[in-house]
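Progress note, sequence design subtask.
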């Protein structure tokens, strides 16, 4: 995400400078900057304000950069710049998530938010990504309780919408598996499968 912003920084400065005072209200509403930073930025001229804002966003790490790009996708935010609107459509913030991001999210997630596996003291499957890949065809054909499984996952909103938009369980499951790009997501999915498709997963586990 940082790389995308850096590479397109000159264009972002141009696009956002025209209504920078209004745009800053959206940025503050999303809590991407502090109150003191907001006050500092509002005292600047438009172009300087956007340059400083982008530097603040870049300095706050990958997750804030992703939230910033997601903000640019909102119609109310990009309506004043057709060029920005067309460009941001080409930016896939979900696919840019790396395995390190996933690991960090798993570590940083509060204990009460982590999904417990209640049937045993530890995960019965150690390499969840390998397990899902090996059994992809079987899972696509057999899993029926897709919606409650999706409910148990912390999917990116765009990924969640893409999965739910599919018309059949097979299409939903195939799309869902396509978004498993790191071990922490794979682990959450395996836990959800054991919860909602216990007999099916026990059968697969016995043959694993």
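Output:
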């Amino acid at each position: 995400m940082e790389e995308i912003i850096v590479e397109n920084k000159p264009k972002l400065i141009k696009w956002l400078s025209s209504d920078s005072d209004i745009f800053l209200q959206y940025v503050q509403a999303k809590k991407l900057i502090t109150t003191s930073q907001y006050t500092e930025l509002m005292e600047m001229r438009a172009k300087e304000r956007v340059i400083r804002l982008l530097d603040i966003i870049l300095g706050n790490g990958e997750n804030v950069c992703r939230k910033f790009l997601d903000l640019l996708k909102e119609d109310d935010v990009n309506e004043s710049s057709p060029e920005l609107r067309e460009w941001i459509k080409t930016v896939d913030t979900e696919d840019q998530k790396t395995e390190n991001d996933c690991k960090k999210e798993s570590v940083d997630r509060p204990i009460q938010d982590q999904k417990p596996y209640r049937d045993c003291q530890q995960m019965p499957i150690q390499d969840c990504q390998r397990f899902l890949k090996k059994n992809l065809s079987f899972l696509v054909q057999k899993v029926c309780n897709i919606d409650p499984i999706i409910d148990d996952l912390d999917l990116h909103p765009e990924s969640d919408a893409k999965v739910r938009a599919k018309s059949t369980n097979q299409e939903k499951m195939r799309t869902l598996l396509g978004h498993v790009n790191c071990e922490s997501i794979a682990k959450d999915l395996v836990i959800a499968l054991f919860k909602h498709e216990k007999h099916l997963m026990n059968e697969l586990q016995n043959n694993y």
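Residues 95-99, 105-123 have pLDDT under 50 and may be disordered. Work on this subtask will continue into the next period as scheduled.
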